[in-house]
Fold each of these.
Amino acid sequence: MKNFGEIAFTDHVKAEQEKHGSRETYAGMTARPAPSGLRDSEIQFISMRDSFYMATVSEEGWPYVQHRGGPAGFLKTLSPTQIGFADYRGNRQ
């Protein structure tokens, strides 16, 4: 899995960071390996949520975002790399 900084910090972004004096700070993000999964604090945070947004991108590059909600705890951590939830029929998409 790529480190977030490798994806987010394009050459243009790096140039802007350099211009504004923050490049050195953000360079540390790409120096550390990405975590291999969710940590306990993140798992606990997820278990308390009563809603979240799920996003994808179409073939043409357009974003598509859907809201999902339920009682706190409806979003489950199945493993450090997987989350799950019951998806009830709603708007039939």
Amino acid sequence: MSESKGIEPTKSKRWYVILTKHNCEKKLQKTLEANGYNSYVPVYTTVRQWSDRKKKVIVPLINSVVFVQVPEILLNDLYNFSHVKGILKEQGTPAIVRDYEIENLKIIVKEWNGEAVSACSENEHYEKGDKVEILRGPFAGIFGELVELNGKHRIVVRLKSMNVEFVINVPLNVVKKSSKETV
């Protein structure tokens, strides 16, 4: 990408949130990739009903958002692309998305089916607010916070820099308590 600007390509790159114009996520990602940027748009397949037919379509998990991995010094260069509306900021500075948050999104869209996984029996004592890691199944590798426990529980995967939450139901026997900071 911009090795000519004296930036070490891997050490100084972080994930940032680029806000796009409406319905331009995939177009912007394609343009960024063609220009040597590492970008990511979490998408899933769903069935949409029109008056005359049903069709499978690929839609973004988070509307008007593209994640891009770039050194912070080059963020303003992204405004040169026509579909960029802005860069998400947190307290006046560009919001950084952690690598594990990107991995959580990849796991979620990889196994997306729009339905909850059925619950199983409890392995150890859990309480609301416990930090947990999913060990097995389609969501393996996700760190989250327990938000509900009634014979089953929900794991909330929260991207701090975006205040976006995803709630997934998983069996108790596929999680363990974690000390990793997730929320």
Amino acid sequence: MVATEKLLWGTSWPIEVLALDGSLVAITGSATILLSIRRKSDDQFLDFNDATFKAAGWTTREQAMTEVDATNAAGEYAYDLDTTSVTNEADDDLYVFRVRDSAGVAKNMPQVGEIWSDGWVKDL
């Protein structure tokens, strides 16, 4: 996952991954690359349906990522998290981003990254 700027609530957080099969060939055309976001302080997951962190009862706990460009960026998948719609964010907290392939084709997954809100990227 890539981030190059200070990440603040009220902005868009770009999340990108590269999906590779067992032969290290880029996977294109997949709809099974899924993102989940967990707030570390209370282990609540973001429900992408209503942009609320919850301990249970999610409608959409994992969000499908979109392929960037199968020809010019083969295997790259992205999701822009619009944090302006998140209803119960917590400042100065650690957020864990996890990307997996529910079909099991991508052999370099799951991929995990961490971001501090209102801070610099801690560990990608």
Amino acid sequence: MAALQLTKTTFEPYVNTVFRIFDGTKVVKSTLVSVADIGPVPDQKPAGRECFLIKFKGTRPLAQKTYRIEHSALGK
């Protein structure tokens, strides 16, 4: 199975739409408010991978860590 390649352009069409963010057993509905380029990682091999930031606004703050997210058009 090929790895999913998420890029900045993957998320850009979905700004101002709702994502579901899974925090343990709770689901937090959050709106994607921005997608920003943060430049290349200098020591990244192979070259060409994007570094970008996606920002959400939700009903409560979440700690910075890795979460499972879902969107009706993008899936899991």
